[in-house]
Amino acid sequence: MRSTPRRWLLVLVAAHLLLVTLGAAGVELGDVGPIGRLLHHYGLASGAECEYDFFTSRDHGQLVLHVDVIDAEGRRSTRSLGTGASHEAEIRVAHIADAFETADPELRRELAKSLAAKMFDRHPEAREVVVRVEYFVAVLMDEHRSGREPRVTQVYDARFRKPQARPEARHGSADPG
Amino acid sequence: MEAPILDDSSPRAGACRALDVFLFAPATARPLAALRIGLASVLLVQAAVVHAEFLDWFSRDGLFQGNLARAFGPLFGPRTGDLLAWLSPLGVGEVAGLRAIGAAYVVALVMLGFGLFTRAAAALAWFLHWTLMNSADPLRYGVDLYAHIFLFYAIWVPVGRAASLDVFLLGASRAPTAGARIGLRLMQMHLCISYFASGVEKAAFIDWWNGELIFRALSFPGYRRFDMSWLAHHPALAQLACLATLAIEIGYCVFIWPRRTRRLWLAAVLGLHLGIAIFLGLHFFGIIMCVLNIALFGISPEPRGDQAAFFAGAAPGESSTLTQPGMRRSKAL
């Protein structure tokens, strides 16, 4: 460290990497006063606050979102929220299911309503749209060998009837299961 | 007359000297250029693949209607709604505004990839990527986080000092710099922290030790690409895959640095990410991680002559164009 600029550069790099480490450890700086909030904002802007907890869920399951379109004859078909143009898009829209984990029933209802409105727009033949979220529980290897099948539990179900101008909920049972 | 710091043989001086070389020995920007081109290419292909969904994801009558998008994700950060509000006094409507944002993002990535006005292009790409990521938070996953992190670095690190139009047309210097070295080290260490954190987090769950997690992940509807149920009849294989993942991720921060183990670890981590891409269908996540690993640890930053000596195992400091007398070159890439 032969020069002052290098020392300062080193301090900045070390501070940034410290934030990266704290972010990776799940430390919430946003609650630690004004400086903590400033660092939290920097962490969001730079990505230093990211956590890397991929595939570390304690749960043995995954939320799965289905959107069913029902036409005037009562025919029901499950449609994707993506346009079907790419696998990448399908992966992303599948992640919307996780948004239903929110504890706020009103927000879940707004989200379901929004998705249903989009489906009415995309499928003019639809008379009703059902937004379902299921919890898929995988089995252990041992259970699979003994013939046990994965379990699916419904955690959210909302049905929307085609409106004249905008989608209106007929009923929206938001049973968190 | 310069003080003879380098002749000081005390342990402290030796440690300072080694740290100085590790962090500041002038390096070429070749690995940084590979990162720049790879990152921009992956994001451009991704943009091309999902462009049909663009309006559905970001417009107010798309999947997240009205102000619903604001209910998800962090409160801080730009959103498409903010940019559209700035554009509306100019008479730009929502659809035209979103198309302009999308086009600006693509142009920024193209400029970043070619290295034209590289810092400005990186700043614009980073800002628009962050904006798009915040505006449809329920749609994001790991690839977006890594892209956001490394686009931010691309603003500050001299990624345009090699294989770029800035060099060929605008005369930017290709000379090795201390800035390239410290930038490379910063990104390398960030990658190490991310793997270590990910590995340690996984190691806290018994399912990563007995192999159940990989069987479970492969059976989830969101990730199932092939029928992997046969794995249940070979639990040792599932366990081996899980343990190898833990070893690769936790050991990364140690074994990616020494020359003797670097190639092995690089191959292992590339195999891990290709496996994720193929078997879990997370193609862009797998590819972007391969790009980051190859750029940061697979490409030598040493000048050409030095590189040959480096890989030939020349003695430290011998026939080096970048080291000063008495100064060792960094043994790590």
Q: Average pLDDT value of chain A?
A: 86
Order of helical and strand elements of chain B: HHHHHHHHHHHHHHH
Helix content of chain A: 25-40%
**What is the gyration radius of chain A calculated from CA atoms?**
23 Å
| Count of structural domains of chain B | 2
Q: Segments of chain B where pLDDT lies below 50 for 5+ residues?
A: 309-333
Tell me the overall shape of chain B.
flat
The total domain count of chain A is: 2
- What oligomeric state do the depicted chains represent? heterodimer
Q: Given the helix and strand composition of chain A, which structural class is it?
A: alpha+beta
Strand order of the largest sheet of chain A: 2-1-3-4-5
The computed structural class of chain B is: mainly alpha
Number of strands of chain B: 0
| Beta-strand residue fraction of chain A | 15-25%
Biggest sheet architecture of chain A: 5 strands, antiparallel
Helix count of chain B equals: 15
SS summary, helix count of chain A: 6
Chains forming the largest contact: A-B, 65 and 71 residues
Can you give a write-up of this model?
The complex is a heterodimer of chains A (177) and B (333). Chain A folds into two domains: 4-46, no CATH class; 61-171, no CATH class. In chain A, a hairpin with a 4-residue loop joins strand 1 and strand 2 (76-79). A five-stranded antiparallel beta sheet of chain A has the order 2-1-3-4-5. By secondary structure, chain A is of the alpha+beta class. Helix content of chain A is 40%, strand content 24%. In chain B, helix 2 packs antiparallel against helix 5 (94-114), helix 9 (178-203) packs antiparallel against helix 12 (235-255) and helix 11 packs across helix 12. Mean pLDDT of chain B is 89; it is low at 309-333.
